[in-house]
Design goal:
Helix 3 crosses helix 5, helix 5 packs parallel to helix 6 and helix 6 packs across helix 7. Helices cover 43% and strands 16% of the residues. With 324 residues, the chain is an alpha/beta fold. This is G6PDH family F420-dependent oxidoreductase. GO terms for molecular function: oxidoreductase activity, acting on paired donors, with incorporation or reduction of molecular oxygen.
């Protein structure tokens, strides 16, 4: 079992995100995960720094902690050749402390380059081709690729790490879980869905199992839930909505009727450690072993202190079930 911290780049400035990564290492987290967005989810977020610059800064200012994208869409806004190069460079700068999280994207971020938003089956096909291109370029030498949707012409990534970064594939449904099993080194989810894990393992998946655990720490329940609603109500819409809406204003409208009681049903919240531990246990019991704690509370440093004093020891001493 490993415990990570989500760097919520939509909610804080790039400088603050780097500071939080340094603090996460200091209080003992195993890894940090940063979203790769062009837009934030909601108007009140107000930020969306470039993930790859943030990762370079984190690599320079930390020594032990692993870092991951959570997650990058390697086509439309990017080309997989660029992601192959970016991931290789980040692995070198971090001395191997990097995991490449990939997924089929959200219209929120990808529509900005004006290339349209394909249906999900086409995005899955594009993800498969992207994975083939990335691994091809990581094998060294010059390569070309002529796929149905993507092409590569006479390209080489010159700076490669001795060992390629693991690739973790985001899965919001069984089709993506099968891609993760067939072409990735692990799976990434945002719901404690044992069915997704079953689809992954039945397709031959044997890698690490990443999941984001929604928490909101504050000194009282009301403040925690109010902050959770402000920062993370988009998370209750599910991937069929999250992948399709084009702008923060659309997510604001789609979540207008989500209230604090709805947030309480989905989050570990408030000052009670047991409530947070139970939220983490839900994911562990579903079979996930790389658990990323998402703090949607109002005070990041308060959460770091809370983790160090109340959560770290229970989460690492057998309080959770699941494989380690």
């Amino acid at each position: 079992m490993q415990i990570g911290y989500k760097l919520f780049a939509e909610g804080y400035s790039p400088q603050e995100i780097v500071r939080q990564a340094v603090r996460a290492e200091a209080v003992g987290f195993d890894f940090v995960e940063v979203s790769d967005h062009f837009h934030p989810w909601l108007p009140e977020h107000g930020h969306s720094g470039f993930a790859w610059s943030i990762l370079a800064a984190v690599a320079a200012r930390t020594e032990r902690i692993t870092m991951a994208t959570g997650v990058t869409c390697p086509f439309i806004r990017y080309h997989p050749a660029i992601i192959a190069q970016a991931a290789a460079t980040t692995a070198l700068l971090s001395q191997g402390r990097f995991v490449l999280g990939l997924g089929s994207g959200e219209q929120l971020n990808e529509h900005v380059v004006g290339r349209g938003w394909p249906p999900v089956d086409r995005r899955h096909a594009m993800l498969r081709e992207s994975l083939e291109i990335i691994r091809l370029l990581w094998s060294g030498g010059y390569h070309s690729y002529d796929g149905r949707y993507l092409t590569l012409e006479d390209a080489q990534v010159f700076d490669l790490p001795e060992e390629s970064p693991p690739i973790i594939i985001a899965a919001g449904g069984p089709a993506a879980a099968r891609i993760a099993a067939e072409m990735g080194d692990g799976v990434f989810v945002t719901q404690p869905d044992a069915g997704l894990l079953r689809a992954y393992t039945e397709a031959g998946g044997k890698g690490d199992r990443y999941a984001e655990v929604p928490l909101a720490w504050a000194t009282d329940d009301a403040a925690a839930l109010a902050s959770a609603r402000s920062m993370f109500r988009f998370g209750l819409t599910g991937w069929k909505v999250q992948a399709e809406l084009p702008n923060p204003v659309n997510f604001d409208a789609a979540t207008a009727f989500i209230d604090n009681a709805d947030m309480a049903s989905a989050f570990g919240y408030g000052p009670d450690p047991e409530r947070h531990i139970e939220a983490v246990r839900t994911f562990s019991d579903a079979g996930y072993d790389r658990l990323t704690l998402v703090n949607a509370g109002p005070d990041p440093d308060g959460f770091f202190d809370f983790y160090a004093t109340e959560l770290a020891e229970p989460l690492r001493s057998g309080a959770l079930s699941g494989r380690g």
